[in-house]
């Protein structure tokens, strides 16, 4: 829970200014950074204006993206920060056409605003046994995974894990679309694809006869976790 603060409090205003500077240093627009840490553009604006105090969850997520919290909170720079964070690139842009362009509920991933990727703590990645060079980031678009992932959520994908297992979500490239779905491998190289949203029916894909479907990797974390 966040709490309003006195806008005349120079300490909080200073924190807001430093928060803005750090967000800009990381290369984010205000709305994009807010989305990356799970708050609205208005909330991010209020934090940077010094009108509200960021809570612990916000700060934890901001730190995972490479923000220097020591600098933001105290004004003293953490000189070791650059060595402790690494940028994970976004999935290369591939503009959606056809159904994905006509129907946002196709749960397509639109990476056009995330070409630079996100910063993550090296220790955070190592604790999850994730290899930086095999990771990518995408932004969820659509409602097929609503209840688990919402439109605008960002997810981290392990591109080394491309053999679907029951109970996990995977990023799939299906023709011109980028999707996220629960996947289960059935006998005969048949892939069962399921959504979190019951409005989207499950379907089976014969991988031996579907060369236009590619498993990009497993979703290993989302904005709800970092």
TrEMBL record:
InterPro entries xrefs: Cro/C1-type_HTH, Lambda_DNA-bd_dom_sf, LexA-like, LexA/Signal_pep-like_sf, Peptidase_S24_S26A/B/C
Transcription keyword on record: yes
Highest taxon of the lineage: Bacteria
Keyword list, A-Z: DNA-binding, Transcription, Transcription regulation
HTH cro/C1-type domain segment(s): 19-72
CDD domains to which the protein is assigned, alphabetical: HTH_XRE, S24_LexA-like
UniProt-listed PANTHER family: FELS-1 PROPHAGE TRANSCRIPTIONAL REGULATOR, PTHR40661
Protein name, as recorded: LexA family transcriptional regulator
Organism in which the protein naturally occurs: Roseateles subflavus
């Amino acid at each position: 829970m966040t709490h309003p603060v006195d806008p005349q409090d120079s300490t909080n205003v200073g924190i807001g200014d430093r928060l803005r500077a750090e967000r800009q240093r990381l290369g984010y627009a205000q709305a994009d950074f807010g989305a990356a840490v799970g708050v609205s553009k208005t909330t991010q604006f209020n934090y940077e204006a010094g009108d509200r105090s960021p809570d612990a969850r916000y700060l934890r997520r901001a730190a995972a993206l490479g923000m220097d919290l020591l600098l933001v909170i105290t004004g003293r720079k953490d000189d070791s920060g650059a060595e402790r964070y690494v940028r994970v690139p976004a999935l290369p842009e591939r503009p959606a056409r056809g159904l994905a362009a006509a129907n946002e509920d196709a749960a397509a991933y639109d990476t056009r605003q995330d070409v630079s990727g996100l910063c993550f703590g090296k220790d955070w990645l190592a604790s999850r046994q994730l290899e930086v060079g095999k990771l990518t980031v995408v932004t969820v678009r659509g409602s097929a995974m609503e209840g688990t992932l919402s439109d605008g959520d960002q997810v981290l994908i392990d591109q080394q894990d491309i053999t679907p297992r029951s109970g996990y979500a995977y990023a799939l490239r299906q023709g011109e679309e980028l999707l996220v779905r629960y996947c289960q491998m059935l006998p005969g190289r048949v892939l069962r694809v399921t959504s979190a949203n019951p409005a989207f029916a499950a379907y089976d894909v014969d991988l031996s006869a579907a060369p236009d479907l590619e498993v990009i990797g497993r979703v290993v974390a989302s904005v709800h976790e970092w």
